[in-house]
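Sample A.
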Amino acid sequence: MRKVLAALFFVGGCTSNYAPVKVEEERPPEVRVEEYVAKRGDVFATAASNLKGVPDSVRARFVSYLADSVKILKVGDTLRAVSIDGELSRLELRRRREIYEYNLHTGRFVRHVKFRTLTPRYAEVEVESTLWDAFVKRGLPPILLVNLVNVFSWEVDFATETQKGDSLKVLYAPDGTVYYAEYVGKSVGRHVVARFMGSYYDEKGNSVRRTFLKSPLKYYRITSGFGIRFHPILKKWRPHHGIDYAAPYGTPVHSVAAGKVTFAGWMRGYGKVVVVKHRNGYRTLYGHLSKLLVRKGQYVDQGQTIGLVGSTGLSTGPHLHFEVRHYGKRINPALIKSEPEKPLPEDLKDDFYRMLGEYRRLISAPEVVLR
């Protein structure tokens, strides 16, 4: 009997000393995905502010890292941020052929590119009279020439600097997008442009963009240079403080640099005029316009159309009178100092050289469509 009671006491003691253990179920992580799909005209830096789950310091680094190459987003470009339990885990900019991914461990961005999707066409032309004639002879799309003029606009003036025997090699898309172009000219030497992250660079990764365009017009002929000339209306010799570009009525006139419009109206013999103030003491004047497309106080971008060629004021025919002043002193527009933009960040140089190598491989690759 004592043994039974002892056994019961022991069992009772054991059961009272060990309470049931409550096991917590493992909680799945909370994943939050933010996406912003770009609309037409979206500015990259502004669009990035839509990602509320991204710390300001990371967003600033993201924008700074890509600002030299990604300024205006294309429709469909997607900014994507993934946070796990309230902490940023992944940050991406997804574009048609590339993804820029933020690496949290290194604090750097990694660019992923699929070169296989790049299947451009290739063409070679030699100038006999003008580049336009060479394009017509080869049956190349006019939009390709327009884009070439634009990407070379800081390096080569095709209206005045092309000569017989100059040559051009170009890789391009059916829509006229220029991927790679090499122009060799007798007067301008050899110039290369390569498309990378939506912008254009030379062989060393330097931006081909400059502070000033070489000309405010795309197509023209120069009728009067800077210096002394015989005025066709006043019938006397007098200083000519700019360059006159002959062009058809209505030809778009572009601001050669970014700046602020300080005058837009009628200015005596100049007729309808636009004056733009730029950095470092420069001002440019565009005279004899038929129509003004900007107003005083407006900020304009480099290459923006600010007016149309006309013959207002003291003028014998449609042309543009173009002047440059530096701290108030009139200077020869042909001698203006045009500084380059910042080169590619060092972190992107390897990617750029790989892309450059791919372009050059495609020039000799059999899959490139020859025109």
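Sample B, a different protein:
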Amino acid sequence: MKKTLSFVLFLTLLLPQGCLHYSRGSGARLSFSRIYVPPAKNDSFAPQVQALLTKQIRAKLANQQNLEIAPSPENAVILEVSIVKFEQFVAATNGNDTALAKSFNEKMTVACTLRSGETGKIYFKDHRLSDSVECDAFGDYHEARYQIMPQLTEKLADKICEIVCNPWK
């Protein structure tokens, strides 16, 4: 009984210590502290996705340690994002399967450039990233497509944030 009580007391004292050193972001030191993200450009056939992607990129970057989202490009690095390719594929593999005939994959490719607004130094240029999502459109096709687009752009926003905030990548 005494050992159990001692162990519980030990865990109670140790548990809060684990959260003391938590900090947002990757913990990597960046050579900049402010970033401006202009609206993404859409050079693809993706339907009106640039505002959604820009919003998600800004939200991901705002959660990074020691990084501030700048309202203008002055005294900040500039992250330019262009949606360069949008593809949709039918996911059916069997001509007899009518359920899979309504399934599809969407793939999006973006090109990112990060440069200094002050010096013009380019951190990376036209870095290509892509990702895809799969959807089963058992009901309305357009509704299903509308619902999966945020998933696709969020996956891309995660990848973009990772290459911006992890200088060793």
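Observation for Sample B: Helices lie at 2-14, 50-62, 141-165.
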